[in-house]
Design brief:
The protein folds into 2 domains: about 5-175, Ribosomal Protein S5, domain 2 (2-Layer Sandwich), CATH 3.30.230.10; about 185-435, 3-Layer(aba) Sandwich (Rossmann fold). The longest helix has 17 residues, at about 410-425. The chain is elongated, with a radius of gyration of 27 Å. The strands form 6 sheets. Strands 14-15-18-12-19 form a 5-stranded parallel β-sheet. Strands 1-2-4-3 form a 4-stranded mixed β-sheet. Strands 5-8-9 form a 3-stranded parallel β-sheet. About 35% of the residues lie in helices and about 20% in strands. By secondary structure, it is α/β, with parallel strands linked by helices. It contains 20 helices and 19 strands.
């Protein structure tokens, strides 16, 4: 019995699947078994039509195709090509499918199409070293070209796929890989990519020098940021420009971002611009965190992994969403448990939020009068709990004055400083940037001089800082020290960090 290798997604990870078949005498039927979805069941008609329109006779036999292992639920139209090849070579005992994985959806005329699930499947298999050769369509091959240590053979239709299996000169179908055309850095023998095309530039933001400085610290060290200020003072403008000045990405991060885009049914993008997700405050808890009883789907926090999760009008998000955010913000991962499955997502995103100082928004305004009473303001502030706010590294209160509009800093200038700080962090041997350091790594990298130690002790007593708050202060101070080109954290670095703590 001949076996063709393929694979299926189980939540966000891929599982290798063997496509096997038998052809026996009896009433002509075509059956696909192996705990299959409707999309796989429908492939019978696509496969039959593709074979007949390309001059192949459908065998008048009882055909049974099995997708093994059978206890795993399988879905996707990418099994079409593997099933069609099984039938096309049903009477050829010499053919050898070897160790090539086969993926592709068949059109009725035999052309091979790409599907959103193929890229994440092959990337997942590649990370586990379970795949080294793959046969796909030309469209899919373009997406796979950046996956390292993978031989990609591409065909356009079913006839070409059959010729590929027959021929000994498989090199003629080999897809030529292309390099990513972005600016690069090489640090400790690892390559990082970055883009200098700023679609939205910080020079458009008038004034708000302190907010721009906070944004630079936020991006340089992957720190969480909340901005509080009157409507129209520039909170959302700053947030939307953050993704273009984020630190460089290595190939693994770029591929992971592309995988999340594919799973979200978006166009796959291999640019080193990090993800930016901005859900509305009316979004449900399931849409933010992911859910589903049988087929669990990713939420916004999983899709923003490695990028930015932006909450505008923060206090208007439901209390349950804000409190549930505490775990992914602290542990950088979240476990979604359902009756049928349990899925662990990485959540190494930067949390950025914007909020008004009061319900009417004019409490801090220099030109408008606030219409809220003390009870309304307090009720508005109480929507954000202390444990939630304790997980925020940078808290900034913005004014609505534009007198300091002479200093127009551009995204290019900010990005250059961030890249310098990024290089310092990587040269120290840090796997994670400062904002995501563990307790042990904080002790190793966040070293204070004697004067700074005394200041931190006084701040701990005066501001009643928790252990978590002290660690946040140290991590922000480490990033400020990197931006100031200081080897250890100085008094000035620490005082600036304390200035960004919520009072």
């Amino acid at each position: 019995m001949k076996i063709i290798k393929s694979a299926s997604l189980d939540s966000i990870e891929a599982i290798a699947i063997d496509v096997e078949s038998t052809f026996t005498k009896g009433l002509p039927t075509f059956t696909i078994v192996g705990m299959i979805s409707t999309s796989i069941s429908e492939s019978k008609d696509r496969v039959k039509s593709a074979l007949l329109t390309n001059g192949f006779k459908f065998p008048p036999l009882k055909i049974t195709v099995n997708l093994s292992p059978s206890e795993i639920a399988k879905k996707g139209t990418h099994f079409d090509l593997a099933i069609a090849l099984q039938i096309a070579f049903y009477d050829d005992k010499k053919v050898n499918f070897s160790d090539i994985f086969v993926f592709g959806e068949l059109a009725l005329d035999g052309n091979i199409k790409d599907t959103n699930s193929i890229f994440p499947i092959i990337l997942s298999l590649s990370k586990k070293d379970s795949i080294n050769k793959v046969l796909v369509s030309s469209q899919t091959a373009q997406k796979l070209a950046n996956i390292p240590n993978l031989k990609i053979y591409c065909v356009n239709n079913l006839s070409e796929a059959i010729e590929f299996i027959k021929t000994d000169k498989k090199e003629n179908y080999l897809y030529e890989k292309k390099k990513l055309e972005y600016k690069t850095l090489i640090i400790n023998d690892e390559q990082y990519f970055y883009d200098t095309n700023y679609l939205e530039d910080f020079k458009d933001v008038i004034g708000q020098d302190m907010a721009k400085y906070a944004a630079m610290i936020c991006a340089a060290g992957n720190h969480n940021l909340i901005m509080e200020g009157s409507p129209g003072c520039g909170k959302s403008m700053i947030s939307k420009r953050l993704q273009y000045i984020m630190p460089p990405m290595n190939l693994e991060e770029i591929l992971e971002k592309a995988k999340l885009l594919a799973l979200d049914f978006k166009e796959v993008d291999f640019s080193p611009i990090r993800a930016f997700r901005s859900p509305h405050h009316s979004s449900t808890k399931s849409s933010i965190f992911g859910g589903g009883s049988s087929n669990a789907k990713m939420g916004e926090i999983a899709l923003s992994n490695g990028g930015i999760l932006f909450f505008d009008e923060l206090p208007h998000f439901s209390k349950s969403i804000l409190e549930a955010l505490r775990e992914p913000l602290e542990d950088n991962k979240i476990l979604i448990s359902r009756v049928n499955n349990k899925i662990l997502y990485e959540t190494k995103f930067i949390f950025v939020a914007a909020m008004n100082p009061c319900p009417c928004g004019n409490l801090l305004s220099s030109v408008k009068e606030c219409r809220c009473n003390e009870i309304e303001i307090q009720r508005y502030k109480n929507r954000l709990s202390e444990p939630f706010l304790d997980r925020v590294d940078l808290y900034l209160v913005m004014n609505d004055s534009f007198k300091d509009n002479k200093n127009k800093v551009s995204s290019k200038e900010l990005h250059e400083n961030i890249i310098k700080a990024f290089i310092k962090q990587k040269q120290r041997g840090q796997k994670e940037l400062n904002g995501k350091l563990s307790d042990e790594e904080i002790k190793k990298y966040c070293i204070l001089d004697e004067e700074s130690l005394n200041i931190l002790e006084k701040a701990r007593f005066n501001y009643q800082l928790s252990f978590r708050s002290i660690n946040k202060v140290l991590k922000v101070a480490r990033t400020i020290a990197d931006l100031n080109d200081n080897e250890i954290i100085t008094k000035n670095d620490l005082l600036q960090s304390l200035n960004f703590r919520r009072r």
